[in-house]
């Protein structure tokens, strides 16, 4: 007997309501109101952006930086992973890692931070989000006034970290260094990370 295993046809009526953006696009507040929205959904230019399955390098790079940042941040800062940041009415990206002012924590149910609460954002490049990670998201972070931005590249399984600081007049980032085996910085605070430790994670 032959069994038809084709997927059922996707029709407009079978899609959830949030699959259809409202006029003008979604707003940052909509992400907290849409039922059954997939985890780690971002809002870029009023459009929903969904997360793809995470690669091993991406997960380990984030873990390496989180361990280092939690050890290094001063008492009035906190390191966070995968928490969205409201940059404007239709902009709510979710950096892989961020450092915030401790005063930005308001409740255990909090789902986002404001741009002015954030001192550092980090994006680990994924193949499916490369253009957003390299171009659109850094531009949005800079326009929102976030002072420090790191971009993490996969170079043969090891992280290469491009460190940027904000030019406040141009509202754009300036490259201050590229770090391969060791990340040693004095801003936004003292930090010294052996990037080769990713091999043991």
TrEMBL record:
Keywords (A to Z) from UniProt: Endonuclease, Hydrolase, Nuclease
Stretches the record annotates as Disordered: 1-23
Domain Putative restriction endonuclease: residue ranges: 29-189
Keyword Flavoprotein: no
Keyword Nuclease listed: yes
Organism: Streptosporangium subroseum
Example of a GO MF term: endonuclease activity
CDD domains: DUF820-like
PANTHER family: SLL1072 PROTEIN (PTHR35400:SF3), SLR1083 PROTEIN (PTHR35400)
Protein name: Endonuclease, Uma2 family (Restriction endonuclease fold)
């Amino acid at each position: 007997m032959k069994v038809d295993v084709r997927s059922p046809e996707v029709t407009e009526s079978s899609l959830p309501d949030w699959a259809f953006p409202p006029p003008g696009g979604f707003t940052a507040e909509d992400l907290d109101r849409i039922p059954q929205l997939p985890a780690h959904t971002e809002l870029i230019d009023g459009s929903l952006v969904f997360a793809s399955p995470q690669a091993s390098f991406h997960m380990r790079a984030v873990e390496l930086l989180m361990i280092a940042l939690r050890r290094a941040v001063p008492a009035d800062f906190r390191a966070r992973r995968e928490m969205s940041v409201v940059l404007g009415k239709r902009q709510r990206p979710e950096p892989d890692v961020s450092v915030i002012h401790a005063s930005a924590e308001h409740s255990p149910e909090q789902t986002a931070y404001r741009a002015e609460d954030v001192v550092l954002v980090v994006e680990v490049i994924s193949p499916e989000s490369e253009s957003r990670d390299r171009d659109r998201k850094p531009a949005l972070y800079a326009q929102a006034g976030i002072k420090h931005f790191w971009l993490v590249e996969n170079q043969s399984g090891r992280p290469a970290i491009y460190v940027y600081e904000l030019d406040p007049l141009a509202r754009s980032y300036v490259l201050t260094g590229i770090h391969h085996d060791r990340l040693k910085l004095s801003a936004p605070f003292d930090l010294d990370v052996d990037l080769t430790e990713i091999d043991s994670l």
